[in-house]
What we know:
Blueprint (H helix, E strand, L loop, with lengths): L1 H8 L7 H19 L9 H22 L1
Helix pairs in contact: 2-3
Amino acid sequence: MRSTFARLVKDDPRIDRAATRFLGRACRFKEIADHGTGPQAVATVVEAQEAIGGAARFIDDIAGLLG
Length: 67
């Protein structure tokens, strides 16, 4: 999904590159939630808050494009 999104929007000036970077970071959290064990499988409170903020911006940006 992440690479498909990046490919689809690579030349679209309406999409901030931060949206693509956000998806990369969000995938890490999905991997932790799905398969994570041990001390590396932890997200800090700050990371979680940043992910939530990034998700909200991403949704707002895409909703704005869809009108």
